Amino acid sequence: MNEIEKLLKLEQYKIIKIEEREENKKMIKIIYVESKNKKGKCPVCGEYTKSVHDKLKPIEMKYLKILEQETRINIIKKRFICHNCKKKFTETVNLNEKGKTITTSLEQKILKELLNYNLSIKYIAEDNSVSSGTVRNILENAMEEYPEHLKNLPRVISFDEFKADTKEGKYAFIINDPIHRKVLDILPKRKKEYLIQYFTYTENRHSVEFVISDMYEPYLVVTTIMFPKAKYVVDRFHYTRYIMEALDKIRIRLQKEYGYNSKEYRMLKNKKNVTLLRKYSNDVDWWTYTQRYRNGHMVDILKYDIREQILGINKELQKGYLLKELFLDVIHTTTYEYAEVELKEWIETVRNYGIAEMESAADTIENWLPYIVNSFIDKRFSNGYTEGVNNKIKVIKRIGYGYKNFKFFRLRIMYILNGRISGITKKDRNQKN
Predict the structure, then answer these.
(1) Cβ atoms within 10 A of the Cβ of 368, count?
(2) With contact defined as beta carbons under 8 Å apart, do 132 and 140 qualify?
(3) pLDDT per residue as tens digits for the range 241-262
(4) What pTM, to 2 d.p., does this model score?
(5) How many Å apart are CA 222 and CA 199, to the nearest integer?
(6) Using CB atoms within 10 A as the burial measure, which of 31, 341, 377, 402 is most buried?
Protein backbone atom coordinates (compact mmCIF):
# COMPACT_ATOMS: atom_id res chain seq x y z
CA MET A 1 0.00 0.00 0.00
CA ASN A 2 2.91 2.41 0.69
CA GLU A 3 4.01 2.24 -2.97
CA ILE A 4 0.43 2.95 -4.10
CA GLU A 5 0.17 5.91 -1.71
CA LYS A 6 3.36 7.40 -3.18
CA LEU A 7 2.20 6.75 -6.74
CA LEU A 8 -1.08 8.51 -6.06
CA LYS A 9 0.67 11.27 -4.06
CA LEU A 10 -1.39 10.39 -1.01
CA GLU A 11 1.43 9.81 1.50
CA GLN A 12 -0.50 11.68 4.23
CA TYR A 13 -3.45 9.32 3.90
CA LYS A 14 -4.07 5.67 4.53
CA ILE A 15 -5.71 3.81 1.64
CA ILE A 16 -8.56 1.70 2.97
CA LYS A 17 -9.63 0.07 -0.28
CA ILE A 18 -9.71 0.56 -4.05
CA GLU A 19 -12.65 -0.43 -6.21
CA GLU A 20 -14.18 0.33 -9.60
CA ARG A 21 -17.67 1.21 -10.73
CA GLU A 22 -19.30 1.93 -14.06
CA GLU A 23 -20.48 5.48 -14.72
CA ASN A 24 -21.66 6.88 -18.07
CA LYS A 25 -20.51 3.68 -19.80
CA LYS A 26 -16.94 3.91 -18.49
CA MET A 27 -15.14 2.51 -15.49
CA ILE A 28 -14.28 4.89 -12.63
CA LYS A 29 -11.60 4.09 -10.04
CA ILE A 30 -12.77 4.75 -6.48
CA ILE A 31 -10.15 5.08 -3.74
CA TYR A 32 -11.23 5.16 -0.08
CA VAL A 33 -8.79 6.96 2.22
CA GLU A 34 -8.54 8.38 5.71
CA SER A 35 -5.91 10.67 7.19
CA LYS A 36 -3.04 9.32 9.24
CA ASN A 37 -3.65 11.97 11.90
CA LYS A 38 -3.93 10.32 15.29
CA LYS A 39 -4.93 13.47 17.13
CA GLY A 40 -6.87 16.66 16.45
CA LYS A 41 -6.79 20.21 17.81
CA CYS A 42 -9.99 21.42 19.43
CA PRO A 43 -11.25 24.60 17.69
CA VAL A 44 -12.76 25.87 20.98
CA CYS A 45 -10.10 25.45 23.67
CA GLY A 46 -7.07 24.59 21.54
CA GLU A 47 -6.30 21.32 23.36
CA TYR A 48 -5.20 18.23 21.44
CA THR A 49 -7.07 14.96 21.77
CA LYS A 50 -6.61 11.40 20.49
CA SER A 51 -10.14 10.34 21.32
CA VAL A 52 -12.08 9.45 18.15
CA HIS A 53 -15.82 9.72 18.71
CA ASP A 54 -16.85 8.29 15.32
CA LYS A 55 -16.21 8.44 11.58
CA LEU A 56 -18.30 10.31 9.03
CA LYS A 57 -19.81 8.99 5.84
CA PRO A 58 -17.23 9.06 3.00
CA ILE A 59 -17.13 12.33 0.99
CA GLU A 60 -16.44 11.75 -2.70
CA MET A 61 -14.23 14.14 -4.70
CA LYS A 62 -12.86 14.12 -8.22
CA TYR A 63 -9.13 13.43 -8.36
CA LEU A 64 -6.37 13.41 -10.97
CA LYS A 65 -6.58 10.76 -13.68
CA ILE A 66 -4.53 7.64 -12.98
CA LEU A 67 -3.23 5.90 -16.10
CA GLU A 68 -5.82 7.88 -18.10
CA GLN A 69 -8.62 6.50 -15.93
CA GLU A 70 -11.00 8.86 -14.16
CA THR A 71 -10.47 8.66 -10.41
CA ARG A 72 -12.47 9.62 -7.34
CA ILE A 73 -11.24 9.95 -3.78
CA ASN A 74 -13.61 9.03 -0.96
CA ILE A 75 -12.27 10.64 2.22
CA ILE A 76 -13.43 9.18 5.51
CA LYS A 77 -13.09 11.91 8.13
CA LYS A 78 -12.69 11.22 11.84
CA ARG A 79 -14.69 13.09 14.45
CA PHE A 80 -12.77 13.75 17.68
CA ILE A 81 -14.08 14.58 21.15
CA CYS A 82 -12.23 17.00 23.39
CA HIS A 83 -12.02 15.81 27.01
CA ASN A 84 -11.30 19.34 28.20
CA CYS A 85 -14.46 21.11 26.90
CA LYS A 86 -16.45 18.08 25.62
CA LYS A 87 -16.59 19.63 22.12
CA LYS A 88 -17.01 17.23 19.20
CA PHE A 89 -15.24 18.36 16.03
CA THR A 90 -14.34 17.00 12.60
CA GLU A 91 -10.69 16.77 11.61
CA THR A 92 -9.32 19.13 8.94
CA VAL A 93 -7.79 17.62 5.81
CA ASN A 94 -6.01 19.36 2.93
CA LEU A 95 -7.36 17.26 0.07
CA ASN A 96 -9.80 19.96 -0.97
CA GLU A 97 -11.10 23.38 0.01
CA LYS A 98 -14.31 23.61 1.99
CA GLY A 99 -17.42 23.16 -0.12
CA LYS A 100 -15.58 21.92 -3.22
CA THR A 101 -16.17 18.53 -4.84
CA ILE A 102 -12.78 18.35 -6.56
CA THR A 103 -9.41 17.87 -4.90
CA THR A 104 -6.86 20.66 -4.61
CA SER A 105 -4.47 18.66 -6.81
CA LEU A 106 -7.02 18.53 -9.63
CA GLU A 107 -7.79 22.23 -9.22
CA GLN A 108 -4.08 23.11 -9.47
CA LYS A 109 -3.78 21.01 -12.63
CA ILE A 110 -6.72 22.86 -14.18
CA LEU A 111 -5.23 26.23 -13.23
CA LYS A 112 -1.96 25.21 -14.88
CA GLU A 113 -3.76 24.15 -18.06
CA LEU A 114 -5.70 27.44 -18.11
CA LEU A 115 -2.34 29.19 -18.63
CA ASN A 116 -1.98 27.42 -21.98
CA TYR A 117 -3.58 29.65 -24.63
CA ASN A 118 -3.81 26.68 -27.01
CA LEU A 119 -6.32 24.90 -24.76
CA SER A 120 -10.02 25.76 -24.76
CA ILE A 121 -12.27 25.69 -21.70
CA LYS A 122 -14.16 22.75 -23.21
CA TYR A 123 -10.98 20.74 -23.80
CA ILE A 124 -9.70 21.35 -20.25
CA ALA A 125 -13.08 20.31 -18.84
CA GLU A 126 -13.23 17.08 -20.87
CA ASP A 127 -9.59 16.23 -20.16
CA ASN A 128 -10.19 16.46 -16.41
CA SER A 129 -13.70 14.95 -16.40
CA VAL A 130 -15.35 18.06 -15.00
CA SER A 131 -17.94 20.44 -16.42
CA SER A 132 -17.06 23.60 -18.35
CA GLY A 133 -18.84 25.52 -15.58
CA THR A 134 -16.41 24.08 -13.02
CA VAL A 135 -13.42 25.22 -15.07
CA ARG A 136 -14.90 28.69 -15.47
CA ASN A 137 -15.57 28.91 -11.72
CA ILE A 138 -11.99 27.90 -10.93
CA LEU A 139 -10.65 30.67 -13.17
CA GLU A 140 -13.08 33.28 -11.80
CA ASN A 141 -12.16 32.37 -8.20
CA ALA A 142 -8.44 32.62 -9.02
CA MET A 143 -8.97 36.08 -10.52
CA GLU A 144 -11.64 37.32 -8.11
CA GLU A 145 -9.44 40.12 -6.75
CA TYR A 146 -8.27 41.44 -10.11
CA PRO A 147 -9.10 45.18 -10.09
CA GLU A 148 -11.76 46.67 -12.36
CA HIS A 149 -9.70 49.84 -12.82
CA LEU A 150 -6.00 50.65 -12.87
CA LYS A 151 -5.07 53.07 -10.11
CA ASN A 152 -1.39 53.37 -11.02
CA LEU A 153 0.39 53.26 -14.36
CA PRO A 154 4.08 53.00 -15.32
CA ARG A 155 5.86 55.94 -16.96
CA VAL A 156 5.53 54.33 -20.42
CA ILE A 157 2.26 52.78 -21.61
CA SER A 158 0.90 51.68 -24.96
CA PHE A 159 -2.61 51.63 -26.44
CA ASP A 160 -4.07 49.37 -29.09
CA GLU A 161 -7.28 47.59 -30.01
CA PHE A 162 -8.11 44.08 -31.14
CA LYS A 163 -11.15 42.40 -32.60
CA ALA A 164 -13.10 40.86 -29.72
CA ASP A 165 -16.65 40.34 -31.07
CA THR A 166 -18.19 40.09 -27.60
CA LYS A 167 -21.60 41.33 -26.47
CA GLU A 168 -19.87 44.59 -25.53
CA GLY A 169 -18.88 45.32 -29.12
CA LYS A 170 -16.65 44.46 -32.05
CA TYR A 171 -13.38 45.91 -30.70
CA ALA A 172 -11.73 45.74 -27.29
CA PHE A 173 -8.97 48.02 -25.97
CA ILE A 174 -5.68 46.86 -24.50
CA ILE A 175 -3.26 48.78 -22.24
CA ASN A 176 0.31 47.47 -21.98
CA ASP A 177 3.61 48.22 -20.31
CA PRO A 178 5.93 47.77 -23.34
CA ILE A 179 9.14 48.32 -21.35
CA HIS A 180 8.49 45.55 -18.82
CA ARG A 181 6.41 43.56 -21.34
CA LYS A 182 3.25 43.27 -19.29
CA VAL A 183 -0.45 43.53 -20.09
CA LEU A 184 -2.00 46.05 -17.70
CA ASP A 185 -5.70 45.81 -18.57
CA ILE A 186 -8.24 45.03 -21.27
CA LEU A 187 -11.36 47.15 -21.74
CA PRO A 188 -14.58 46.28 -23.58
CA LYS A 189 -14.64 49.45 -25.71
CA ARG A 190 -12.23 51.77 -27.49
CA LYS A 191 -14.55 54.78 -27.67
CA LYS A 192 -13.02 58.09 -26.60
CA GLU A 193 -15.67 58.90 -23.97
CA TYR A 194 -15.37 55.46 -22.38
CA LEU A 195 -11.57 55.67 -22.17
CA ILE A 196 -11.66 59.13 -20.61
CA GLN A 197 -14.12 57.87 -17.98
CA TYR A 198 -11.92 54.82 -17.27
CA PHE A 199 -8.73 56.81 -16.77
CA THR A 200 -10.38 59.13 -14.25
CA TYR A 201 -9.77 56.30 -11.73
CA THR A 202 -6.00 56.46 -12.35
CA GLU A 203 -4.32 58.28 -9.48
CA ASN A 204 -0.91 58.93 -11.07
CA ARG A 205 -2.02 60.18 -14.51
CA HIS A 206 0.44 63.08 -14.30
CA SER A 207 3.35 60.64 -13.86
CA VAL A 208 2.87 59.01 -17.26
CA GLU A 209 5.62 60.30 -19.57
CA PHE A 210 4.98 58.46 -22.86
CA VAL A 211 1.94 56.93 -24.53
CA ILE A 212 2.66 54.70 -27.54
CA SER A 213 -0.05 53.97 -30.08
CA ASP A 214 -0.97 54.19 -33.75
CA MET A 215 -2.34 57.03 -35.87
CA TYR A 216 -5.85 56.83 -34.46
CA GLU A 217 -6.92 60.34 -33.52
CA PRO A 218 -9.24 59.46 -30.57
CA TYR A 219 -6.23 57.91 -28.77
CA LEU A 220 -4.31 61.16 -29.23
CA VAL A 221 -7.26 63.12 -27.81
CA VAL A 222 -7.48 60.79 -24.79
CA THR A 223 -3.75 61.17 -24.17
CA THR A 224 -3.93 64.97 -24.39
CA ILE A 225 -6.83 65.18 -21.93
CA MET A 226 -5.96 62.44 -19.43
CA PHE A 227 -2.13 62.46 -19.54
CA PRO A 228 -1.23 66.15 -19.97
CA LYS A 229 2.48 65.64 -19.23
CA ALA A 230 2.93 62.67 -21.57
CA LYS A 231 4.40 62.67 -25.07
CA TYR A 232 2.34 60.81 -27.66
CA VAL A 233 4.47 58.36 -29.66
CA VAL A 234 3.37 56.82 -32.95
CA ASP A 235 4.68 53.28 -33.14
CA ARG A 236 7.13 52.83 -36.04
CA PHE A 237 5.51 49.58 -37.14
CA HIS A 238 2.32 51.48 -37.97
CA TYR A 239 3.80 54.41 -39.83
CA THR A 240 6.22 52.15 -41.73
CA ARG A 241 3.26 50.06 -42.81
CA TYR A 242 1.78 53.10 -44.58
CA ILE A 243 4.86 53.26 -46.83
CA MET A 244 4.81 49.51 -47.51
CA GLU A 245 1.12 49.69 -48.38
CA ALA A 246 1.73 52.64 -50.70
CA LEU A 247 4.29 50.58 -52.67
CA ASP A 248 1.84 47.69 -52.73
CA LYS A 249 -0.88 49.95 -54.14
CA ILE A 250 1.46 50.92 -56.98
CA ARG A 251 2.08 47.23 -57.69
CA ILE A 252 -1.64 46.41 -57.68
CA ARG A 253 -2.44 49.35 -59.97
CA LEU A 254 0.21 48.30 -62.48
CA GLN A 255 -0.86 44.70 -62.23
CA LYS A 256 -4.36 45.66 -63.34
CA GLU A 257 -3.05 47.88 -66.12
CA TYR A 258 -0.97 45.08 -67.70
CA GLY A 259 -3.88 42.63 -67.65
CA TYR A 260 -4.46 39.07 -66.48
CA ASN A 261 -2.74 37.22 -69.34
CA SER A 262 0.48 39.26 -69.35
CA LYS A 263 3.91 38.19 -68.12
CA GLU A 264 4.08 41.36 -66.02
CA TYR A 265 0.81 40.47 -64.27
CA ARG A 266 2.13 37.05 -63.25
CA MET A 267 5.39 38.49 -61.95
CA LEU A 268 3.65 41.23 -59.94
CA LYS A 269 1.05 38.79 -58.63
CA ASN A 270 3.56 36.18 -57.41
CA LYS A 271 3.55 36.30 -53.61
CA LYS A 272 7.23 35.34 -53.35
CA ASN A 273 8.17 38.24 -55.60
CA VAL A 274 5.94 40.65 -53.67
CA THR A 275 7.79 39.67 -50.47
CA LEU A 276 11.08 40.88 -51.95
CA LEU A 277 9.51 44.27 -52.66
CA ARG A 278 8.21 44.61 -49.12
CA LYS A 279 11.46 43.77 -47.34
CA TYR A 280 14.07 46.35 -46.46
CA SER A 281 16.99 45.88 -48.86
CA ASN A 282 19.52 45.57 -46.01
CA ASP A 283 17.57 42.62 -44.60
CA VAL A 284 17.90 40.53 -47.78
CA ASP A 285 20.96 38.63 -48.99
CA TRP A 286 20.50 39.39 -52.67
CA TRP A 287 23.33 37.12 -53.77
CA THR A 288 21.69 33.89 -52.65
CA TYR A 289 19.60 31.65 -54.88
CA THR A 290 15.91 30.94 -54.59
CA GLN A 291 13.65 28.76 -56.73
CA ARG A 292 11.08 29.96 -59.25
CA TYR A 293 8.92 28.19 -61.80
CA ARG A 294 10.25 28.80 -65.33
CA ASN A 295 9.30 27.07 -68.63
CA GLY A 296 7.59 24.14 -66.97
CA HIS A 297 10.13 23.37 -64.22
CA MET A 298 11.79 24.85 -61.12
CA VAL A 299 15.06 26.74 -61.58
CA ASP A 300 17.52 28.48 -59.27
CA ILE A 301 17.67 32.24 -59.67
CA LEU A 302 19.39 35.01 -57.72
CA LYS A 303 17.13 37.17 -55.57
CA TYR A 304 18.93 40.20 -57.01
CA ASP A 305 17.92 39.19 -60.56
CA ILE A 306 14.29 38.71 -59.49
CA ARG A 307 14.19 42.17 -57.96
CA GLU A 308 15.73 43.74 -61.06
CA GLN A 309 13.19 41.98 -63.29
CA ILE A 310 10.31 43.26 -61.17
CA LEU A 311 11.63 46.83 -61.02
CA GLY A 312 12.32 46.75 -64.76
CA ILE A 313 8.59 46.34 -65.47
CA ASN A 314 7.74 50.00 -64.88
CA LYS A 315 9.52 53.23 -63.90
CA GLU A 316 6.84 54.14 -61.33
CA LEU A 317 7.36 50.86 -59.52
CA GLN A 318 11.10 51.46 -59.56
CA LYS A 319 10.65 54.98 -58.14
CA GLY A 320 8.18 53.74 -55.51
CA TYR A 321 10.66 51.08 -54.42
CA LEU A 322 13.43 53.68 -54.18
CA LEU A 323 11.23 55.96 -52.01
CA LYS A 324 10.40 53.05 -49.75
CA GLU A 325 14.11 52.26 -49.34
CA LEU A 326 14.95 55.92 -48.66
CA PHE A 327 12.29 56.03 -45.95
CA LEU A 328 13.61 52.86 -44.29
CA ASP A 329 17.15 54.24 -44.46
CA VAL A 330 15.97 57.24 -42.44
CA ILE A 331 14.11 55.07 -39.94
CA HIS A 332 17.08 52.78 -39.38
CA THR A 333 19.85 55.39 -39.20
CA THR A 334 18.54 58.72 -37.94
CA THR A 335 18.41 59.98 -34.35
CA TYR A 336 15.86 61.99 -32.40
CA GLU A 337 17.90 65.13 -33.03
CA TYR A 338 17.79 64.82 -36.84
CA ALA A 339 14.62 62.77 -37.42
CA GLU A 340 12.31 65.70 -38.16
CA VAL A 341 14.67 67.28 -40.72
CA GLU A 342 15.37 64.01 -42.51
CA LEU A 343 11.71 63.00 -42.66
CA LYS A 344 10.77 66.41 -44.07
CA GLU A 345 13.44 65.97 -46.75
CA TRP A 346 11.97 62.58 -47.61
CA ILE A 347 8.46 64.08 -47.86
CA GLU A 348 9.79 66.74 -50.26
CA THR A 349 11.48 64.04 -52.36
CA VAL A 350 8.20 62.12 -52.61
CA ARG A 351 6.38 65.19 -53.90
CA ASN A 352 9.06 65.76 -56.53
CA TYR A 353 8.53 62.21 -57.83
CA GLY A 354 4.78 62.79 -58.27
CA ILE A 355 3.52 59.26 -57.52
CA ALA A 356 -0.03 59.52 -56.10
CA GLU A 357 0.15 56.50 -53.76
CA MET A 358 3.42 57.66 -52.21
CA GLU A 359 2.20 61.26 -51.94
CA SER A 360 -0.83 60.09 -49.97
CA ALA A 361 1.42 58.16 -47.56
CA ALA A 362 3.75 61.17 -47.24
CA ASP A 363 0.78 63.39 -46.33
CA THR A 364 -0.06 61.00 -43.48
CA ILE A 365 3.54 61.05 -42.26
CA GLU A 366 3.54 64.87 -42.37
CA ASN A 367 0.26 65.13 -40.43
CA TRP A 368 1.64 62.95 -37.62
CA LEU A 369 5.27 64.11 -37.87
CA PRO A 370 5.76 65.43 -34.28
CA TYR A 371 4.48 62.14 -32.82
CA ILE A 372 6.48 60.03 -35.28
CA VAL A 373 9.64 61.93 -34.31
CA ASN A 374 8.95 61.00 -30.65
CA SER A 375 9.48 57.33 -31.58
CA PHE A 376 13.21 58.08 -31.94
CA ILE A 377 13.58 59.19 -28.30
CA ASP A 378 14.01 55.56 -27.24
CA LYS A 379 14.21 52.51 -29.52
CA ARG A 380 12.17 50.56 -26.96
CA PHE A 381 9.16 52.77 -27.70
CA SER A 382 7.40 50.26 -29.88
CA ASN A 383 4.14 48.35 -30.04
CA GLY A 384 6.01 45.18 -30.98
CA TYR A 385 5.09 43.55 -27.67
CA THR A 386 1.47 44.62 -28.14
CA GLU A 387 1.33 43.08 -31.63
CA GLY A 388 2.65 39.81 -30.20
CA VAL A 389 0.02 39.89 -27.45
CA ASN A 390 -2.72 40.55 -30.00
CA ASN A 391 -1.63 37.47 -31.96
CA LYS A 392 -1.94 35.36 -28.81
CA ILE A 393 -5.39 36.80 -28.16
CA LYS A 394 -6.43 35.77 -31.68
CA VAL A 395 -5.40 32.19 -30.85
CA ILE A 396 -7.30 32.26 -27.53
CA LYS A 397 -10.39 33.50 -29.34
CA ARG A 398 -10.10 30.98 -32.19
CA ILE A 399 -9.47 27.96 -29.94
CA GLY A 400 -12.51 28.91 -27.82
CA TYR A 401 -14.68 29.55 -30.92
CA GLY A 402 -15.14 33.12 -29.70
CA TYR A 403 -16.20 34.57 -26.35
CA LYS A 404 -19.46 36.49 -26.03
CA ASN A 405 -18.98 37.20 -22.32
CA PHE A 406 -16.37 39.98 -22.27
CA LYS A 407 -15.78 39.79 -18.51
CA PHE A 408 -14.76 36.14 -18.68
CA PHE A 409 -12.78 36.71 -21.90
CA ARG A 410 -10.83 39.46 -20.11
CA LEU A 411 -10.07 37.23 -17.13
CA ARG A 412 -8.87 34.38 -19.35
CA ILE A 413 -6.58 36.69 -21.32
CA MET A 414 -5.16 38.38 -18.22
CA TYR A 415 -4.60 35.02 -16.50
CA ILE A 416 -2.81 33.57 -19.53
CA LEU A 417 -0.65 36.62 -20.21
CA ASN A 418 0.21 37.56 -16.61
CA GLY A 419 -0.68 34.48 -14.59
CA ARG A 420 -0.74 36.52 -11.42
CA ILE A 421 -3.01 38.88 -9.53
CA SER A 422 -1.21 42.12 -8.65
CA GLY A 423 2.07 40.15 -8.50
CA ILE A 424 0.82 37.71 -5.84
CA THR A 425 -0.87 34.41 -6.59
CA LYS A 426 -3.98 33.41 -4.70
CA LYS A 427 -2.01 30.54 -3.12
CA ASP A 428 0.63 33.00 -1.86
CA ARG A 429 -2.11 35.20 -0.43
CA ASN A 430 -3.76 32.31 1.40
CA GLN A 431 -0.41 31.26 2.88
CA LYS A 432 0.19 34.79 4.17
CA ASN A 433 -3.24 34.83 5.76
Answers:
(1) 20
(2) no
(3) 999 999 999 999 999 999 988 9
(4) 0.82
(5) 9
(6) 31
